[in-house]
Amino acid sequence: MKIGYFDPFSGASGDMMLGAIVDAGLPLKTLREELKKLPVGDYTLTAQKTQRGGIAATKVNIKVKTRAHSRDDEHPHSNLPAILDLIEHSALPDDDRRQAAAVFQRLAEAEGRVHGVPPEKIHFHEVGAVDAIVDIVGSVVGVRLLGIERLVCGPVRTGMGFVTSAHGRMPIPAPATAELLKGVPTVGTDVEGELTTPTGAALLTTLCDAFGPRPLMTVAAIGYGAGTATRETPPNVLRLFVGEVISEEEEAEERDEVLVIEANLDDLSPEIIGYVLDRLLAAGALDAFLIPVHMKKNRPGVLLQAIVEPGSAAAIEEIILTETSTFGLRRTRATRRKLHRESADVTTRFGKIRVKLGRLGRKLLHAAPEYEDCRRAAAEFSVPIKAVYDAALDAFRR
Questions:
Q1: CA pair distance 323, 373, nearest whole angstrom
Q2: Of 32, 138, 245, 380, which has the most beta carbons under 10 Å away?
Q3: CA-CA distance, 17 to 226, in Å (whole number)?
């Protein structure tokens, strides 16, 4: 599954999110073409590389073409019903329309609760309305175009101080931002200024389905979206990780915990050590082996190691303590990542041979004939064991 992880260590805004998406690999031309499906034509969308606190980032700029009108004129896209109607009648895919509308609905509801008016009565400033439409719809479209199937977000930084808005001087986080971030992990900082805007908060809380640490993922791309403020500390950027994550079910199948039990031996007969290894394997050790070591008093010795499942540890330790000369042993807990194992029977001129298969997700990485089957067939047909191995692999490939 392709996953995106937003890291708002310096907050988030609509243009920062859009910049991070473009910086992560979405061509601006592709984004522009897709946004043409939205009937808002009085703007230009550009992007440029910039620096914020020593980090190279992409700054997306939306320039609205002004038009002559009186101060009392209302922009056609300045209220929630008009914006929802515009999105509904666009040529965008159904999921894009649904998500973009949900972001605007959430934003208007938060503003409405703060100012004590119904969401449909909330009005956006003329330039702000077009900015918000492009930022929000562009972010929704951009996530889809990057192929991201799931979004997760880290704790959101909000800054401190006051911000001046159309409603006067407001505390940070702005009341609408605070309303939108209810129930979401947030971090207060001593940075003066508005780190997270209402538009950024609405996008994150609508599009992301989880908040917390970055999940186990293989990162393929990282994007940095620059905000307008040129603040150096912390760098005014929003970071986006894009990569692959396996499902919880697959992860549970491929990882487990084992114990590594070991002891140093320098005064034990090789015959006894061989006998001990056989006993350990018979008692349920996943593996048991010897490593040559140079010990104190210049004595050559061996390190005896056994890898066991936790439930078998007591029996394995008892064998080592009773059958060897050691006065103690060490136990270490380890995480083991495994290929998913399967077995397939193949028919050869030497009879049926089992082949062990190792898969990573759905990808087949290894195929190995079973040794015991090959040894039996080699003895039965009086042929080299390598001939049986080769025949089994040829049959499997066919």
A1: 32
A2: 138
A3: 8
Tell me the pTM. Answer: 0.62
Side chain identity, residue 18: L
pLDDT of 290-305, one tens digit each?
A: 999 999 888 899 999 9
- For 69-84, what is each residue's pLDDT tens digit? 434 444 455 788 889 9
Q: Which residue has the higher pLDDT, 95 or 363?
A: 95
**CB–CB of 144/96 below 8 Å?**
yes
Partnered with residue 5 across adjacent β-strands are: 152, 241
Instruction: Express as a percent the part of the chain with pLDDT over 70.
Output: 92
List where CATH 3.30.70.1380 sits in the chain. 252-337
Query: Does residue 97 come out as left (phi exceeding 0), alpha (psi in the -120 to 50 range) or beta?
Result: alpha
- Please state the rounded mean pLDDT for residues 82-92: 92
Tokens of 203: 């996008």
In sequence order, which residues have a C-beta less than 8 Å from that of residue 231 and are 6 or more positions away?
Answer: 10, 52, 53, 191, 193
Fold of 252-337: Alpha-Beta Plaits (3.30.70)
Question: Which residues touch 219 (CB under 8 Å, ≥6 apart)?
Answer: 241, 242, 243
Nearest CA to 355 among 371, 332, 339?
Answer: 371
pLDDT at 227: 94
